[in-house]
Amino acid sequence: MDMFSTRTMMAMVEEGRTSNHTWLRDRYFGTRPTFDTQYIEFDVVDMTGRKLAPFVDPKASGAVLGRKGYKTQAFVAPEVSPYRVTTAEDLLKRSAGETIYSTLTPMQRAAQLLGKDLADLDEIISRREEAMCAEALFTGKISIAGAGLSADEISYWSNLASADQPKTTLTTKWDATATKTAAIMKDLRDARRSMNKRGGFTPTELICGTKVIDTLLDKFTGSNAFDMRRVDMGAIDPQHLPNGVSYWGYLKDSALDIYSYDEWYLNDSGTEVAMVPENLCLLASPNVRTMLAYGAVGVVDESSPNGISVYAGARVPASWVQHANPTGRILQMKSRPLPIIQQIYGFHVLDALTAVSS
Protein backbone atom coordinates (compact mmCIF):
# COMPACT_ATOMS: atom_id res chain seq x y z
CA MET A 1 0.00 0.00 0.00
CA ASP A 2 1.07 3.58 -0.61
CA MET A 3 1.78 5.10 2.83
CA PHE A 4 0.80 8.52 1.45
CA SER A 5 -2.66 7.44 0.29
CA THR A 6 -5.59 9.11 2.01
CA ARG A 7 -7.12 5.89 3.35
CA THR A 8 -3.85 4.57 4.80
CA MET A 9 -3.10 7.85 6.57
CA MET A 10 -6.60 8.10 8.03
CA ALA A 11 -5.96 4.87 9.92
CA MET A 12 -2.62 6.22 11.19
CA VAL A 13 -4.30 9.38 12.48
CA GLU A 14 -6.99 7.44 14.34
CA GLU A 15 -4.32 5.40 16.11
CA GLY A 16 -2.76 8.53 17.59
CA ARG A 17 -5.74 10.74 18.36
CA THR A 18 -6.19 9.58 21.95
CA SER A 19 -2.84 11.13 22.90
CA ASN A 20 -4.23 14.67 22.66
CA HIS A 21 -5.88 15.94 25.83
CA THR A 22 -8.22 18.92 25.55
CA TRP A 23 -10.20 19.32 28.72
CA LEU A 24 -13.15 21.55 27.78
CA ARG A 25 -13.70 19.72 24.50
CA ASP A 26 -13.51 16.26 26.02
CA ARG A 27 -15.57 17.12 29.12
CA TYR A 28 -18.45 19.04 27.55
CA PHE A 29 -18.44 18.02 23.87
CA GLY A 30 -18.15 14.26 24.03
CA THR A 31 -20.61 13.55 21.19
CA ARG A 32 -18.69 13.64 17.87
CA PRO A 33 -20.94 13.03 14.85
CA THR A 34 -19.63 13.36 11.31
CA PHE A 35 -21.67 14.58 8.35
CA ASP A 36 -21.30 14.26 4.58
CA THR A 37 -22.43 17.86 4.03
CA GLN A 38 -20.94 21.24 4.89
CA TYR A 39 -24.21 22.40 6.46
CA ILE A 40 -25.05 21.02 9.89
CA GLU A 41 -28.69 21.32 10.95
CA PHE A 42 -30.55 20.35 14.10
CA ASP A 43 -33.96 20.98 15.64
CA VAL A 44 -34.38 22.73 18.98
CA VAL A 45 -37.63 21.69 20.72
CA ASP A 46 -39.27 24.23 23.00
CA MET A 47 -39.20 23.62 26.74
CA THR A 48 -41.95 21.46 28.18
CA GLY A 49 -42.96 24.32 30.41
CA ARG A 50 -44.51 24.23 33.84
CA LYS A 51 -48.20 24.12 32.96
CA LEU A 52 -50.58 22.21 35.16
CA ALA A 53 -53.18 19.84 33.81
CA PRO A 54 -56.42 21.87 33.88
CA PHE A 55 -59.42 20.84 35.93
CA VAL A 56 -62.48 20.00 33.82
CA ASP A 57 -66.08 19.11 34.33
CA PRO A 58 -66.37 15.30 34.36
CA LYS A 59 -69.16 15.61 31.83
CA ALA A 60 -66.94 17.58 29.44
CA SER A 61 -64.74 15.99 26.78
CA GLY A 62 -61.52 17.34 28.31
CA ALA A 63 -59.05 20.12 27.57
CA VAL A 64 -57.05 20.46 24.35
CA LEU A 65 -53.29 20.47 24.90
CA GLY A 66 -51.13 22.06 22.22
CA ARG A 67 -47.95 20.37 20.97
CA LYS A 68 -44.50 21.73 21.64
CA GLY A 69 -42.99 23.80 18.86
CA TYR A 70 -39.43 23.65 17.54
CA LYS A 71 -37.05 25.66 15.44
CA THR A 72 -34.32 24.49 13.08
CA GLN A 73 -30.84 25.93 13.23
CA ALA A 74 -28.27 25.51 10.47
CA PHE A 75 -24.55 26.24 10.58
CA VAL A 76 -21.75 25.93 8.05
CA ALA A 77 -18.79 24.12 9.59
CA PRO A 78 -15.60 26.19 9.09
CA GLU A 79 -12.58 24.44 7.60
CA VAL A 80 -9.03 24.21 8.92
CA SER A 81 -6.34 22.76 6.66
CA PRO A 82 -2.80 23.03 8.06
CA TYR A 83 -0.06 21.35 6.05
CA ARG A 84 3.65 20.52 6.10
CA VAL A 85 6.19 20.32 3.26
CA THR A 86 8.82 17.56 3.23
CA THR A 87 11.76 18.37 0.96
CA ALA A 88 14.65 16.22 -0.23
CA GLU A 89 16.87 18.03 2.28
CA ASP A 90 14.61 16.86 5.13
CA LEU A 91 15.16 13.24 4.10
CA LEU A 92 18.94 13.56 3.84
CA LYS A 93 19.72 15.29 7.15
CA ARG A 94 19.40 14.03 10.70
CA SER A 95 16.11 14.91 12.40
CA ALA A 96 15.81 16.20 15.98
CA GLY A 97 16.67 13.46 18.49
CA GLU A 98 18.22 11.19 15.86
CA THR A 99 21.70 9.91 16.67
CA ILE A 100 24.60 11.49 14.80
CA TYR A 101 25.62 8.06 13.54
CA SER A 102 22.16 7.12 12.35
CA THR A 103 21.95 4.65 9.46
CA LEU A 104 18.36 5.48 8.52
CA THR A 105 17.69 5.50 4.81
CA PRO A 106 15.79 8.42 3.23
CA MET A 107 12.67 6.23 2.94
CA GLN A 108 12.86 5.25 6.63
CA ARG A 109 13.27 8.88 7.57
CA ALA A 110 10.30 9.77 5.34
CA ALA A 111 8.15 7.27 7.25
CA GLN A 112 9.24 8.79 10.57
CA LEU A 113 8.53 12.31 9.35
CA LEU A 114 5.12 11.22 8.12
CA GLY A 115 4.15 9.93 11.56
CA LYS A 116 5.49 13.01 13.33
CA ASP A 117 3.84 15.44 10.92
CA LEU A 118 0.50 13.65 11.22
CA ALA A 119 0.71 13.93 15.01
CA ASP A 120 1.69 17.62 14.86
CA LEU A 121 -1.12 18.52 12.45
CA ASP A 122 -3.63 16.61 14.58
CA GLU A 123 -2.44 18.44 17.71
CA ILE A 124 -2.77 21.92 16.19
CA ILE A 125 -6.30 21.13 14.99
CA SER A 126 -7.16 19.78 18.44
CA ARG A 127 -5.99 23.04 19.98
CA ARG A 128 -8.19 24.97 17.54
CA GLU A 129 -11.13 22.77 18.57
CA GLU A 130 -10.42 23.49 22.24
CA ALA A 131 -10.33 27.24 21.56
CA MET A 132 -13.63 27.00 19.63
CA CYS A 133 -15.28 25.06 22.48
CA ALA A 134 -14.01 27.59 25.04
CA GLU A 135 -15.32 30.54 22.99
CA ALA A 136 -18.71 28.87 22.52
CA LEU A 137 -19.05 28.20 26.25
CA PHE A 138 -17.91 31.59 27.54
CA THR A 139 -19.18 33.97 24.83
CA GLY A 140 -22.01 32.10 23.10
CA LYS A 141 -20.35 32.49 19.71
CA ILE A 142 -17.40 31.40 17.58
CA SER A 143 -15.44 33.97 15.59
CA ILE A 144 -14.33 32.88 12.12
CA ALA A 145 -11.42 34.79 10.60
CA GLY A 146 -8.49 33.86 8.40
CA ALA A 147 -6.60 34.47 5.19
CA GLY A 148 -9.00 34.94 2.30
CA LEU A 149 -12.04 34.84 4.57
CA SER A 150 -14.49 37.61 5.41
CA ALA A 151 -14.83 38.00 9.16
CA ASP A 152 -17.83 36.03 10.35
CA GLU A 153 -19.17 34.48 13.52
CA ILE A 154 -21.42 31.63 14.56
CA SER A 155 -23.72 32.81 17.34
CA TYR A 156 -25.77 30.61 19.64
CA TRP A 157 -27.32 33.52 21.56
CA SER A 158 -28.32 35.60 18.53
CA ASN A 159 -32.05 34.94 18.95
CA LEU A 160 -32.04 35.93 22.62
CA ALA A 161 -32.56 39.33 24.13
CA SER A 162 -29.65 40.50 26.27
CA ALA A 163 -31.59 39.83 29.47
CA ASP A 164 -32.33 36.24 28.37
CA GLN A 165 -28.75 35.27 27.55
CA PRO A 166 -27.10 32.76 29.91
CA LYS A 167 -24.64 35.30 31.25
CA THR A 168 -24.68 37.60 34.27
CA THR A 169 -22.44 40.63 34.62
CA LEU A 170 -22.28 41.20 38.36
CA THR A 171 -22.71 44.78 39.53
CA THR A 172 -20.81 44.08 42.75
CA LYS A 173 -17.59 42.39 41.74
CA TRP A 174 -16.09 39.59 43.81
CA ASP A 175 -12.68 41.26 44.00
CA ALA A 176 -14.09 44.44 45.54
CA THR A 177 -12.75 45.01 49.05
CA ALA A 178 -16.24 45.22 50.54
CA THR A 179 -17.46 41.96 48.96
CA LYS A 180 -17.88 39.22 51.54
CA THR A 181 -18.07 35.47 51.16
CA ALA A 182 -21.83 35.52 51.75
CA ALA A 183 -22.36 37.82 48.74
CA ILE A 184 -20.33 35.52 46.48
CA MET A 185 -22.28 32.50 47.61
CA LYS A 186 -25.57 34.31 46.96
CA ASP A 187 -24.44 35.19 43.42
CA LEU A 188 -23.77 31.50 42.79
CA ARG A 189 -27.13 30.52 44.23
CA ASP A 190 -28.87 33.08 42.02
CA ALA A 191 -27.10 31.77 38.90
CA ARG A 192 -27.93 28.20 39.86
CA ARG A 193 -31.58 29.17 40.37
CA SER A 194 -31.64 30.91 36.98
CA MET A 195 -30.39 27.76 35.25
CA ASN A 196 -33.08 25.69 36.98
CA LYS A 197 -35.82 28.17 36.09
CA ARG A 198 -34.90 28.75 32.44
CA GLY A 199 -33.77 25.31 31.37
CA GLY A 200 -34.37 22.84 34.17
CA PHE A 201 -30.65 22.18 34.57
CA THR A 202 -28.84 21.80 37.89
CA PRO A 203 -25.17 22.80 37.61
CA THR A 204 -22.61 20.67 39.43
CA GLU A 205 -19.34 22.33 38.37
CA LEU A 206 -17.83 25.80 38.47
CA ILE A 207 -14.99 26.40 35.99
CA CYS A 208 -12.92 29.43 37.01
CA GLY A 209 -10.48 31.69 35.23
CA THR A 210 -7.12 32.24 36.91
CA LYS A 211 -8.04 35.51 38.62
CA VAL A 212 -11.44 34.22 39.70
CA ILE A 213 -10.00 31.19 41.48
CA ASP A 214 -7.39 33.38 43.18
CA THR A 215 -10.15 35.69 44.39
CA LEU A 216 -12.31 32.80 45.64
CA LEU A 217 -9.44 31.25 47.54
CA ASP A 218 -8.57 34.62 49.06
CA LYS A 219 -12.16 35.37 50.11
CA PHE A 220 -12.96 31.86 51.32
CA THR A 221 -9.82 31.37 53.41
CA GLY A 222 -10.91 30.70 56.96
CA SER A 223 -14.63 30.87 56.11
CA ASN A 224 -15.13 27.07 55.88
CA ALA A 225 -16.92 27.58 52.57
CA PHE A 226 -14.95 24.74 50.98
CA ASP A 227 -15.64 21.27 52.32
CA MET A 228 -12.13 19.90 52.13
CA ARG A 229 -13.35 16.42 53.11
CA ARG A 230 -14.23 15.98 49.43
CA VAL A 231 -10.56 16.39 48.50
CA ASP A 232 -9.49 12.78 48.98
CA MET A 233 -6.11 12.15 47.40
CA GLY A 234 -7.04 8.50 47.11
CA ALA A 235 -10.09 9.37 44.96
CA ILE A 236 -8.98 12.52 43.16
CA ASP A 237 -5.38 12.15 42.02
CA PRO A 238 -4.01 15.32 40.40
CA GLN A 239 -1.72 13.20 38.27
CA HIS A 240 -4.79 11.81 36.51
CA LEU A 241 -6.13 15.26 35.52
CA PRO A 242 -5.20 16.73 32.16
CA ASN A 243 -2.46 19.33 32.13
CA GLY A 244 -3.50 22.68 33.50
CA VAL A 245 -6.62 21.43 35.34
CA SER A 246 -6.85 21.83 39.13
CA TYR A 247 -9.61 20.63 41.45
CA TRP A 248 -10.01 22.91 44.46
CA GLY A 249 -12.84 21.43 46.47
CA TYR A 250 -16.58 21.30 46.97
CA LEU A 251 -18.74 24.36 47.69
CA LYS A 252 -21.49 23.07 49.99
CA ASP A 253 -23.74 26.11 49.71
CA SER A 254 -24.20 25.74 45.94
CA ALA A 255 -23.33 22.04 45.60
CA LEU A 256 -20.55 22.85 43.11
CA ASP A 257 -17.20 21.21 42.46
CA ILE A 258 -14.65 23.96 41.83
CA TYR A 259 -12.09 23.69 39.02
CA SER A 260 -9.60 25.99 37.36
CA TYR A 261 -8.04 25.48 33.95
CA ASP A 262 -4.67 27.01 33.17
CA GLU A 263 -4.23 26.68 29.42
CA TRP A 264 -3.46 29.21 26.68
CA TYR A 265 -3.18 29.45 22.91
CA LEU A 266 -1.54 31.89 20.50
CA ASN A 267 -3.96 33.91 18.40
CA ASP A 268 -3.27 35.03 14.82
CA SER A 269 -1.31 38.06 16.05
CA GLY A 270 0.91 35.91 18.29
CA THR A 271 -0.69 37.02 21.56
CA GLU A 272 -1.28 34.46 24.30
CA VAL A 273 -4.99 34.06 25.11
CA ALA A 274 -6.37 32.10 28.07
CA MET A 275 -8.76 29.27 27.19
CA VAL A 276 -10.84 30.31 30.20
CA PRO A 277 -11.03 34.13 30.40
CA GLU A 278 -9.35 35.12 33.66
CA ASN A 279 -12.26 37.29 34.89
CA LEU A 280 -15.04 34.79 34.09
CA CYS A 281 -16.39 31.58 35.55
CA LEU A 282 -18.84 29.03 34.17
CA LEU A 283 -21.53 27.05 35.91
CA ALA A 284 -21.90 23.82 34.00
CA SER A 285 -24.14 20.77 33.93
CA PRO A 286 -22.72 17.50 32.60
CA ASN A 287 -26.09 16.42 31.17
CA VAL A 288 -26.42 19.20 28.60
CA ARG A 289 -26.88 18.14 24.99
CA THR A 290 -23.91 19.32 22.96
CA MET A 291 -21.89 18.00 20.08
CA LEU A 292 -18.62 18.57 18.31
CA ALA A 293 -19.83 18.03 14.77
CA TYR A 294 -17.63 17.57 11.72
CA GLY A 295 -18.69 18.65 8.26
CA ALA A 296 -17.54 16.96 5.06
CA VAL A 297 -14.28 17.98 3.39
CA GLY A 298 -13.21 17.67 -0.21
CA VAL A 299 -9.85 16.21 -1.23
CA VAL A 300 -8.29 16.29 -4.70
CA ASP A 301 -8.27 12.69 -5.88
CA GLU A 302 -7.03 11.86 -9.37
CA SER A 303 -8.56 8.39 -9.15
CA SER A 304 -12.02 9.84 -8.63
CA PRO A 305 -14.19 10.33 -11.75
CA ASN A 306 -14.59 14.07 -11.09
CA GLY A 307 -11.16 14.58 -9.50
CA ILE A 308 -12.59 15.26 -6.03
CA SER A 309 -13.42 12.86 -3.22
CA VAL A 310 -15.61 13.93 -0.30
CA TYR A 311 -14.92 12.45 3.12
CA ALA A 312 -16.97 12.57 6.33
CA GLY A 313 -14.49 12.40 9.19
CA ALA A 314 -12.88 14.25 12.06
CA ARG A 315 -9.48 14.26 10.37
CA VAL A 316 -8.91 13.78 6.65
CA PRO A 317 -5.25 13.79 5.52
CA ALA A 318 -4.15 14.35 1.93
CA SER A 319 -0.77 14.36 0.22
CA TRP A 320 0.65 15.36 -3.14
CA VAL A 321 3.96 16.31 -4.75
CA GLN A 322 4.66 19.98 -5.38
CA HIS A 323 7.24 20.95 -8.00
CA ALA A 324 7.95 24.53 -6.93
CA ASN A 325 7.89 26.97 -3.98
CA PRO A 326 9.38 24.73 -2.55
CA THR A 327 9.78 21.37 -4.28
CA GLY A 328 8.62 18.58 -2.01
CA ARG A 329 5.77 16.47 -0.76
CA ILE A 330 2.81 18.25 0.83
CA LEU A 331 1.08 16.60 3.78
CA GLN A 332 -2.19 18.30 4.67
CA MET A 333 -4.74 17.60 7.39
CA LYS A 334 -8.30 18.76 6.74
CA SER A 335 -11.10 19.12 9.25
CA ARG A 336 -14.38 21.02 9.60
CA PRO A 337 -15.10 21.06 13.35
CA LEU A 338 -18.09 22.87 14.81
CA PRO A 339 -18.95 22.85 18.54
CA ILE A 340 -22.73 23.10 18.96
CA ILE A 341 -24.56 23.83 22.22
CA GLN A 342 -28.06 22.51 21.69
CA GLN A 343 -29.34 23.43 25.18
CA ILE A 344 -27.87 26.84 25.87
CA TYR A 345 -29.34 27.19 29.36
CA GLY A 346 -27.28 24.21 30.53
CA PHE A 347 -24.39 26.64 31.05
CA HIS A 348 -24.23 30.06 32.71
CA VAL A 349 -21.38 32.56 32.56
CA LEU A 350 -20.58 34.94 35.41
CA ASP A 351 -18.56 38.09 34.71
CA ALA A 352 -17.31 38.23 38.27
CA LEU A 353 -14.29 40.52 38.52
CA THR A 354 -13.42 44.13 37.82
CA ALA A 355 -12.23 44.56 34.25
CA VAL A 356 -8.65 45.79 33.96
CA SER A 357 -8.08 48.22 31.11
CA SER A 358 -5.09 47.44 28.95
Topology of this protein?
Elements: H1 6-16, H2 23-28, E1 39-45, E2 70-76, E3 83-86, H3 88-92, H4 106-139, E4 141-144, E5 152-155, E6 167-169, H5 181-199, E7 205-208, H6 210-220, E8 226-227, E9 245-251, E10 256-261, E11 264-266, E12 272-274, E13 280-284, E14 290-294, E15 297-300, E16 308-311, E17 316-323, E18 327-334, E19 337-341, E20 347-351
Parallel strand pairs: 6-20, 7-10
Antiparallel strand pairs: 1-2, 3-18, 4-5, 7-13, 8-9, 9-10, 11-12, 13-20, 14-19, 15-16, 17-18
Helix pairs in contact: 1-4
Give a concise summary.
The chain is of the alpha+beta class and 358 residues long.
End-to-end distance:
56 Å
Number of strands: 20
CATH C-level label: Alpha Beta
Q: Under CATH, the topology is which?
A: putative capsid protein of prophage fold
CATH superfamily: putative capsid protein of prophage domain like
Q: How many structural domains? A: 1
Radius of gyration, in angstroms, nearest whole number:
25 Å
How large is the share of residues in beta strands?
25-35%
Give the strand order of the largest sheet, numbering strands 1, 2, ... along the chain.
Answer: 6-20-13-7-10-9-8
Tally of contiguous helical segments: 6
For the record, the CATH architecture stands as Super Roll
The largest pleated sheet is described as:
7 strands, mixed
Class of secondary structure makeup: alpha+beta
Low-confidence stretches: 232-240
Q: What sort of overall outline do the alpha carbons produce when their principal axes are compared?
A: globular
